[in-house]
């Protein structure tokens, strides 16, 4: 009998089975021998994949990407550099980063038919609803990347996979900026070849009629840090949705739309918007005590405080406060 096993006895029948323990986990299929299914309501204690991409220690407030502490990456890297690290497993060389940046930024432009599609939404459409829909629509603009049309072999082609990575990274800021501009009743801005990734996003969001508009460098850097901090966070809801949809063999754009839909929820990425709405509802400092009293009485929810994983502090919050 190994010290690295779990002995399980079914008291109904007296049947005993030995289950191997590997990295503090057990293979639940072993319980099939006892005619049992493991029930974990809400996935509160279930691991469904092995990953070397990110690591979290909630008790100690640690977040790492590919072994690098998030504090170091936020201080020394850019979002596109961190994206390369997450996807390929190592930080790029200077030459690799230059080529990576060029390829991504080359894909920031979207088809004119996509612009027509975005303009067809109601004037008061929610930007995330527009974004989710336009990401899904991207699959119709790139039929060569459709598994329905080309088969699942597209996932076996490194060049084809990389092309979709460039498209997703490049076009998402443009689609998001157009959705925001639509909501505020402004004309859409085309991407600028003269600006970096995050600067370009701010440019598309905020430019009015200026011919030489450039986003404030401190704001651009702060937003780039925010992008880094949100680039990966283990198997959260939207990541799980992406993986589950991809397991069916569907094309990457529809999978990404599903992940964005999950992010839309107020208990996930939508909590950011919910926190802002809460602050607007509170309105002024003198209204805070009454609001907190309602929270304690379970009449209202306090958004933006606390975290299911981080029990001491969220390392991202410390970095954001500095930024």
UniProtKB/TrEMBL annotation:
Keywords for this protein: Transferase
InterPro entries named among the record's database cross-references: Citrate_synth-like_lrg_a-sub, Citrate_synthase, Citrate_synthase_AS, Citrate_synthase_bac-typ, Citrate_synthase_sf
Pfam families for the chain: Citrate_synt
PROSITE patterns: CITRATE_SYNTHASE
Gene3D superfamilies the UniProt entry points to: Citrate Synthase, domain 1
Source taxon at top rank: Eukaryota
Family: Belongs to the citrate synthase family.
Name of this chain's protein: Citrate synthase
Species: Polyrhizophydium stewartii
Taxon lineage: Eukaryota, Fungi, Fungi incertae sedis, Chytridiomycota, Chytridiomycota incertae sedis
């Amino acid at each position: 009998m190994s010290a690295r096993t779990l002995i399980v006895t079914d008291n109904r029948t007296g049947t005993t089975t030995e289950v191997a323990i590997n990295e503090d986990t057990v293979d639940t299929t072993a319980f099939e021998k006892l005619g049992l299914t493991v029930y974990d309501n809400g996935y509160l204690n279930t691991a469904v994949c092995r990953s070397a991409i990110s690591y979290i220690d909630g008790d100690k407030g640690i977040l790492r990407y590919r072994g690098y502490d998030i504090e170091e990456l936020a201080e020394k890297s850019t979002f596109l550099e961190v994206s390369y690290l997450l996807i390929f497993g190592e930080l790029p060389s200077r030459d690799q980063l230059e080529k990576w940046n060029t390829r991504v930024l080359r894909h920031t432009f979207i088809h004119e038919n996509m612009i027509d599609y975005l303009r067809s939404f109601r004037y008061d459409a929610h930007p995330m609803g527009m974004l989710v829909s336009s990401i899904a629509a991207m699959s119709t603009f790139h039929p060569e990347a459709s598994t329905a049309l080309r088969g699942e072999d597209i996932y076996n082609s490194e060049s084809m996979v990389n092309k979709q990575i460039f498209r997703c990274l490049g076009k998402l800021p443009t689609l998001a900026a157009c959705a925001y501009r639509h909501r505020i009743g402004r004309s859409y801005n085309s991407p600028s070849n003269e600006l970096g990734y995050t600067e370009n996003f701010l440019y598309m969001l905020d430019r009015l009629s200026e011919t030489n508009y450039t986003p404030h460098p401190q704001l651009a850097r702060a937003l780039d840090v925010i992008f880094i901090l949100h680039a990966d966070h283990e198997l959260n809801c939207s990541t799980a949705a992406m993986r589950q949809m991809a397991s069916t063999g569907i094309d990457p754009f529809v999978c990404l739309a599903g992940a964005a839909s999950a992010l839309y929820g107020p208990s996930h990425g939508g909590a950011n918007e919910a926190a802002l709405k809460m602050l607007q509802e509170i309105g002024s400092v003198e209204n805070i005590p009454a609001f907190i009293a309602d929270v304690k009485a379970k009449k209202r929810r306090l958004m933006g405080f606390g975290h299911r994983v981080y029990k001491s502090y969220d390392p991202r919050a410390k970095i954001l406060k500095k930024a």
